[in-house]
Design goal:
Kinesin, motor domain-containing protein, about 270 residues, Kinesin, ATP binding, four-stranded parallel sheet, binds adenosine-5'-diphosphate, four-stranded antiparallel sheet, disordered N terminus, binds magnesium ion, alpha/beta
């Protein structure tokens, strides 16, 4: 968007978390406290803890994580010898195991989408060990019911795309929306939306001479409706499979990046 705000960059870090996982590495947990906000640091860190899976229950895994959504805190318990040590970590927001996709969307992502349409660049970054709920949070499962409502398991991306379309349509805006979907795996960038023969070649990072970095040959897919996004996500996710079969329980070292580019034409008061 051609206005000054477009140079602003903001970020939300979503940390999906399993209730059995230790949090010591996040000791400095929150990326944004009151002082940061005063200094204008536009980063928020949000923690989401998923519920126990059937495997966790079967293995009788003890719970070591307790979420306090009201105080935006996570309490992690560790047994050292016969001593129990509790540590508390603060975040900008905490979503416990019973939090719903819609709650996280309405409280965190809805406001971001509104700001994106005002010209701010936004990044939502989901970081966490394999199996903690990154894909569930960002993409989710389900789709739409016949009445047009989202299935309760639908995640951030389809909901955001729908909100973008709904808002732009309501404003009668002249706009276009394009998406890209890449995977970073083993230091190589793969275009998850490319046609088969093209996707075999890794994408190269190039500099444009003005200090910006771009990806040469990256496929940008035009999206005309929110429903198309399911097809695009499925198409891209199917390509991710080779990485996922090599899964190890710490990390499959695969990172995906889904980008939405919106262009809006605004008419100045003199009609130009
Ligand atoms: P990741 O992408 O981080 O490796 P997934 O999103 O694939 O992890 O989640 C692992 C499993 O846990 C999936 O079966 C997913 O459906 C389930 N899951 C993750 N988060 C939640 C949640 N908040 N509520 C219910 N199920 C969840
Ligand atoms: Mg995943």
């Amino acid at each position: 968007m051609e206005n000054t705000k477009s140079y602003q960059q903001r970020r939300v870090s979503l940390m999906p978390f399993s209730p059995t996982q230790m949090l010591w590495s996040a000791e400095n947990g929150s990326g944004c406290n009151k002082d940061d906000k005063d200094k204008g640091v536009n980063v928020q860190v949000i923690l989401r803890c998923r519920p126990f899976s059937e495997d966790d229950v079967r293995a009788k895994t003890p719970a070591v994580v307790a979420c306090n959504e009201d105080k935006q805190e996570v309490i992690v318990t560790q047994n050292m010898g016969n001593k129990q040590i509790d540590k508390t970590f603060s975040f900008d927001k905490v979503f416990g195991p019973s939090s719903r996709q819609k709650d996280l969307y309405d409280q965190v992502v809805g406001p971001i989408v509104r700001e994106a349409l005002e010209g701010y660049n936004w990044t939502i970054f989901a970081y966490g060990q394999t199996g903690t709920g990154k894909t569930y949070t960002m993409e989710g499962e389900g789709g739409k019911a016949k009445n047009g409502e989202f299935h309760e398991d639908v995640g951030v991306i389809p909901r955001a795309v729908e909100q973008l379309f709904d808002t732009l349509e309501a404003q009668n805006a002249e706009y276009s929306m394009k998406v890209t979907y890449i995977e970073l795996y083993n230091e190589e960038i793969t275009d998850l939306l490319a046609l088969d023969d093209k996707s075999k070649k890794p994408i190269t990072l190039m500099e444009d001479g003005k200090g910006a970095v771009f990806m040469r040959g990256l496929e940008e897919e035009l999206v005309r409706s929110a429903d198309e996004i399911y097809h695009i996500l499925q198409k891209g996710s199917a390509r991710k499979h080779t990485a996922e079969t090599l899964i190890n329980t710490q990390s499959n070292r695969s990172h995906s990046l889904f980008t939405i580019i919106i262009q809006i034409k605004e008419h100045a008061s003199d009609g130009v």
